[in-house]
Specification:
By secondary structure, this protein is mainly alpha-helical. It has 2 helices and no strands.
């Protein structure tokens, strides 16, 4: 459109500034024809521009409608996906809580069992230690009794042997020693 107006302006300027009247008249006729032609061309160009603008606006409205529909679909899909994420996160959190609860229960049960086993082992070890000490003490007492008995028996034998030796020596010497055998 600028070119059309510039062309019109140029044609008018040329038509107005001619120096000769005859030329002015001829140019005026030519300018009139040119103006009419330019006006017709401007009208056609303006009509074409309006039609093109109308078509472009219609296309833009259609494209905008398509964009809105696509955005609406994308938003709906995003809402659905967000709902799925929330649901999955909730399920995962519930599963994690249950897993922690189960693991804690297992730890407590295992600790309880281990403590019970430790108490039973300590009790058994203490009982074994007491029985071992009792057996060792009994063996020591028996060993002391046996040793004492052997010592007494050995002392008696030695006393008897000494008495017999004294009697034999006295018999050889000829005196009578009256030793009592205890």
């Amino acid at each position: 459109m600028k070119k059309v107006f510039l062309s019109l302006g140029l044609a008018l300027t040329i038509g107005l500034f001619t120096t000769s009247c005859r030329e002015v008249k001829e140019n005026a006729d030519s300018a009139g024809n040119a103006i009419e032609n330019a006006a017709e061309a401007t009208k056609n160009a303006a009509g074409n521009a309006v039609d093109s603008a109308k078509d472009a606006a219609g296309n833009a409205v259609d494209a905008a409608g398509n964009v809105v529909n696509s955005a609406k679909d994308v938003a709906g899909n995003a809402v659905d996906a967000a709902g799925n994420v929330v649901s999955n996160a909730k399920d995962a959190a519930g599963n994690a809580v249950n897993g922690v609860k189960d693991a804690a229960g297992n730890v407590i049960n295992n600790a309880k069992d281990a403590a019970g086993n430790a108490v039973n082992s300590a009790k058994d070890a203490a009982g074994n230690a007491v029985n071992g000490a009792k057996d060792a003490a009994g063996n020591a007492v028996n060993n002391v009794k046996n040793a004492a008995g052997n010592t007494v028996d050995g002392a008696k034998k030695m006393a008897n042997d000494a008495t017999d030796a004294t009697k034999n020596a006295a018999n050889k010497v000829g005196s009578k020693v009256n030793l009592k055998n205890n």
